[in-house]
Automatic annotation (TrEMBL):
It holds the Pfam family Ser_hydrolase. SUPFAM superfamilies: alpha/beta-Hydrolases. This is Esterase of the alpha/beta hydrolase fold. InterPro entries: AB_hydrolase_fold, RBBP9/YdeN. It comes from Actinoalloteichus caeruleus DSM 43889. It comes from the Bacteria.
Length: 217
C-alpha cells in the first residue's frame, strides 16, 4: 500500500461532472496514491460543525509517517482555514496544502451562513501544514483577485493568479488540470500556474461524482 496520500476537500454543492478534483482523483489513484475524497453532509448548505469533524476524521486516518497533500476548493478552502485556526498541538500536520478559489470575505450567499471565513491567522497555517499556497482565477467573482491578494498577505502565503480561469471549476474548463497534478506530485513545486493549464474536457464516461467521492462519514 502506498505511503503517499491526497485529501481532496470539495466545495459548495460538491464537484460536478468534469471537475478537476474528480479528474485528479482518478489520475492519482492510477499513479498508486491513496486518495481520500470524503463526501461532506448537506453540500448545498455547509455547516462548520458538521463538516469539520469529517475533515479531521479523514486527516487522523492517515499514518503520521506518510506523506499527505491536501487540495481544497471554494468553501472547502474556507473549511481548511477553520481547521488550522482551531488545531491542537498534537493534531496531525500535513505536508502541503493548496487552497483553490478561496472565497473572498465580501462574498455572501444565504446558503453559506453556516460556513463563513474565519479571521486570518498566518501562524495557524504554518502549524497545520509545511507548505500552504493559494490559487485563484483572474476573473473569479467568488474569489476576486484583490481579495485573494489580501488573504495571501494576511496569511503570508504564495498566490498564483491564473488568467481567465473563473472559479477554477468545471464551468470554467477545469477539467483536467496538469498544474494541480504536478503540484501534488512534486514537493519542490511552487507556482501552480506555471505547472500547466487545463487540458481538453475530461471524458469521464459514465463516471459520476457519487462513484468517486468517498461516502464514508
Amino acid at each position: 500500500m502506498s505511503d503517499r496520500h491526497v485529501l481532496l476537500v470539495h466545495g459548495w454543492q460538491s464537484p460536478t461532472r468534469g471537475h478537476w478534483q474528480l479528474w485528479l482523483s482518478a489520475e492519482l489513484r492510477h499513479l498508486g496514491w491513496q486518495v481520500h475524497f470524503p463526501r461532506f453532509p448537506s453540500p448545498g448548505t455547509p455547516v462548520l460543525r458538521s463538516w469539520l469533524p469529517v475533515l479531521r476524521d479523514r486527516l487522523a486516518s492517515v499514518p503520521r509517517g506518510d506523506e499527505l497533500v491536501v487540495l481544497a476548493h471554494c468553501v472547502g478552502a474556507t473549511l481548511w482555514l477553520h481547521h488550522a485556526a482551531t488545531l491542537g498541538g498534537r493534531d496531525r500536520r500535513v505536508d502541503r496544502v493548496l487552497l483553490a478559489g478561496l472565497p473572498g470575505r465580501g462574498w455572501n450567499h444565504p446558503d453559506l451562513v453556516g460556513l463563513r471565513p474565519p479571521p486570518p491567522h498566518s501562524w495557524s497555517l504554518r502549524r497545520a501544514a509545511g507548505i500552504t499556497r493559494m490559487v485563484c482565477g483572474s476573473d473569479d467573482p467568488i474569489a476576486p483577485v484583490r481579495e485573494s491578494e489580501e488573504w495571501a498577505r494576511a496569511l503570508r502565503i504564495g498566490l498564483d493568479v491564473v488568467p481567465d480561469a473563473g472559479h477554477l471549476d468545471a464551468e470554467s474548463g477545469y477539467g483536467p488540470w496538469p498544474g494541480a497534478l504536478e503540484w501534488a506530485l512534486d514537493p519542490r513545486a511552487e507556482s501552480v500556474a506555471a505547472a500547466g493549464n487545463p487540458g481538453p474536457p475530461a471524458d469521464l464516461g459514465a463516471l459520476h461524482h457519487r462513484d468517486v467521492l468517498d461516502a464514508r462519514r
